[in-house]
Amino acid sequence: MSDIVCEVRGRTGLITLNRPKALNALSLGMVRQLAQALLAWRDDPAVAAVAIRGQGRDSSSPSGSAPFGNFSAGGDIRFFHQAALAGDPQLEDFFTEEYELNFIVDTFPKPYVSFLDGIVIGGGMGIAGHGRAGQRMRVVTERTRMSMPETQIGLFPDVGGGYFLGRCPGRLGEYLALTCNVIGGAQAVAANLADVLVESPRLPSLWDALAEGGIQALESRLARLRTDEAAQPQELFERERIDRLFSLPTVPAIAAALAADGSPWALETLDAVRKRSPLMQCVTLEQLRRGRTMALADVLRMERDMVRHCFHLRAAGEGETVEGIRALAIDKDNRPNWRPARVEEVDPQEVMAFFASPWPAHAHPLRAL
């Protein structure tokens, strides 16, 4: 069966990511199938709304699968590693087409509902939708585990991360990007990374309501569920500390302030910040500060420049991204050799090099956005 299952029920286009053994990680073929489906439905008057979910595994069911499960673990990082070392041009194609897909999702002119159950990581956030208020709805559950952990593999929070993380309340975006912390459904809503929190057993009925009755039927059901929201326990962030500490101008300044704070929360946070690629932590902070005031198309073009540099500023195999993926997913020794080893040693000029476009404007791969 295909890694992407598309169908139309009633007037709703339904997409199921169907690669559960890989946690629905996105391949280039999946990106192309998603773009093809959305472009077709965008111009089809018979389709009034679109919904997307991830297929899960459930050994207790007759088919060995569950209709809802992990949404998506993002891009296929093993492919990134292999393609980078082999000089495979499909690596360039993947990022260009993935970011084009993110833009298609964000500007989709019809209601777009994402059911973000289970793991929602990296590239999964890009296809969840992060714009067009009133046109997109991101549904999370108590099982949602959301994160943008890219600096853990020597990358940066791409797929528009400079846009949507920069628009989180206060400095939550910087905090989530630099710690790579995993948050639950209630926290995702509080961070403006999701819109509605529901109990996971309700997902099948909500999916069917949308398929059979359209967006109005879904909204009606959700309105009834919202009457119980006041009784739901809310997971809280350390907002005062986060806003104060993560508003500082540099990563070394943030690290020093966390150390000076000395609270258990601050020291745990500092430990998370220190574990990631120092270079890419500094690149990421600059990305978010720039992206906060940029349009999404401009952010995606900037991130396309940045991801090109992740694989080409240094010789093949010597960049932070290849090394980070090696340590996490290839050799699995969890001992990346970051260069430099500390944020205090990062050269600001190397950071700025990530923001110089390798293409003139007329030849940029995302010039049409």
UniProtKB/TrEMBL annotation:
The entry's keywords: Hydrolase
Key word Transcription regulation present: no
Domain of life: Bacteria
CDD domains according to UniProt: crotonase-like
Sequence ranges assigned to domain Enoyl-CoA hydratase/isomerase in this UniProt record: 13-355
A Pfam family that the UniProt record links to this protein: ECH_2
UniProt key word Membrane: no
Protein name: Enoyl-CoA hydratase/isomerase family protein
Species for this entry: Caenimonas terrae
